């Protein structure tokens, strides 16, 4: 996913399936010190395992499994931790015309012990809003890549100020 760039091979855990990937997150959040870090999990079950094959019953069971594990993950998060759950596209398991991606809006769920109450982040205009928010969290400045300056917002608008 990251083209083997920017991450030490010892820090990459692929996991056999989504359950293992979420359990890995729970383990990392449970065992870490208070230092800052970025944990990324690519959950593919709702897309590849149940979405494209058009298996709505499996899709629902998978969402329920993810939901239960997210409860566990939230229970081990510390005050300044933030969980961002989103997707890059939709795959409706009930769509019958074709097995390709469908185009419904994707979720954006942001949770953490430091967020008080529900916050409506609205419909975002670009996925880059997540990148801009992560850049805000880590106070990233412009990045120079092969002599080209890339703005830290990556074309998106951070929503961090709406959360804290």
Provide a compact summary of the structure.
The chain has 164 residues and is an alpha+beta fold. The chain has two domains: 1-116, Alkaline Phosphatase, subunit A (3-Layer(aba) Sandwich), CATH 3.40.720.10; 118-164, no CATH class. Helix content is 30%, strand content 9%.
How much of the residues is beta strand, in percent?
Answer: 5-15%
Distance between the termini: 30 Å
Total strand segments: 4
Largest sheet: 2 strands, antiparallel
Question: What's the overall average pLDDT, rounded?
Answer: 84
CATH class category label of the largest domain: Alpha Beta
How many domains? The number is 2
**Strand-pairing-aware structural class:** alpha+beta
Shape estimate: globular
Q: Write the H/E string, N to C.
A: HHHEEHEE
Q: Regions with pLDDT < 50 over 5+ consecutive residues?
A: none
User: What's the CATH architecture of the largest domain?
Assistant: 3-Layer(aba) Sandwich
Q: List the strand order in the largest sheet.
A: 1-2
Helical residues, percent: 25-40%
Q: CATH homologous superfamily of the largest domain?
A: Alkaline Phosphatase, subunit A
From the 3D structure, determine the CATH topology of the largest domain.
Alkaline Phosphatase, subunit A
Radius of gyration: 17 Å
Q: What's the tally of helices?
A: 4
């Amino acid at each position: 996913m990251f083209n083997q760039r920017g991450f030490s091979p010892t820090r990459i855990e692929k996991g056999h399936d989504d359950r293992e990937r979420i359990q890995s997150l729970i383990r990392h959040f449970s065992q870490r010190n208070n230092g800052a870090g970025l944990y990324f999990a690519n959950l593919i079950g709702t897309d590849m395992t149940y979405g494209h094959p058009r298996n709505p019953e499996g899709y629902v069971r998978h969402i329920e499994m993810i939901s239960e594990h997210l409860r566990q993950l939230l229970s081990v998060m510390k005050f300044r931790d933030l969980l961002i759950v989103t997707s890059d596209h939709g795959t409706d398991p009930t769509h019958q015309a074709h097995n390709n991606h469908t185009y419904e809006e994707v979720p954006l769920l942001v949770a953490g012990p430091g967020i008080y109450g529900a916050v409506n982040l609205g419909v975002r205009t670009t996925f880059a809003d997540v990148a801009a928010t992560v850049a805000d969290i880590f106070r990233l400045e412009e990045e120079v890549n092969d002599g080209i300056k890339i703005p830290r917002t990556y074309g998106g608008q951070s929503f961090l100020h709406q959360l804290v």
